[in-house]
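ugh ok fine here u go
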Amino acid sequence: MSAPDRSPANATSSGTGVEFVDCDLTPAASIQGQPRPREVVVNGRRVKTVDVHAHCAVPEALALMGRKADRPGLLFSQTEDRIRAMDEQGIDLEALSINPYWYGADRDLAAEIIRIQNERLAEFCAEQPERFVAFATVALQHPELAAQQLQDAVKKLGLRGASVGGSVEDEELANPRFNPFWAKAEELDVLVFIHPMGTKELASRVTGSGGLDNTIGNPLETTIALSHLIFEGTLDRFPGLKLCAAHGGGYLPSYAARSDAILEAFPDRRTVLLKKKPTEYLRQLYFDSLVFTPEGLRHLVAETGSSQIMMGTDYPYPWTKTAVDHILTTPDLTDAERSAILGGTAAKLLGITP
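structure:
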């Protein structure tokens, strides 16, 4: 849930210059009081929980884009505050990501922003290795540079993959010019987390009550991005690519059968020959669990398979405190499935020790 035209305040959370923010890149409110540490147990066994969808920002890098402080709430001024919040929710480890606000930057500026962010993320995670890992940031508008940034971040800094937006300055992720980045991600065998940046092209239609730019716009962008990656053959060209879509993959898993039906009813719409039915690609993608209701999660499991879902909180957005219970209370999941969604699958993909 991000809006690329907003920025956090100046204060930082630690000596590394990392700042914890909400999905709109605004500072998160301080946690009041002392949360109770929580251990998550499934059928008598302690489960290590991993959150794949948690936001932060690096003010030093934001400043290079002329981002000014927007301080609607209090910041996490100490790392301990964030950890107390995690303990209260039952989150053992977070995979930090930064929503891309730099896709309009030229090559030199983008390179400096990414260098600062990735170094600060690595430093911060090194301070609390049992609680945090991070996705690298990349300048995807410069695909060859992005591929090198990913390699350096993974091989030299120990970051666990990359986070990208759902589009790049109105270009689809399936555009062939981004293939060097996808090839590098496949080669490195790392997870790429896709977080939408909204559908600014629909700005005139998502105004008014209900925050529709976020409510509808964000999951819609994810739906469009994934559909292009499927229909344009990107997932066929890079079959080993590991992609995780935020917010349960947007609307695609809820209406995926129409993607199969369009090719049967209107075969002339097919311009790229796919190796599988469109719905089959859902089972090689990954999704976070942020779909709000037990029925929503049950349906996501039915469409994609439980092995493709990981817990995501969208921390520190207000609805995140229910992420663990959301998984524990969804009916018809086996104990093994609950454990995998809570952390087992993410631990494997991110190289986290159980």
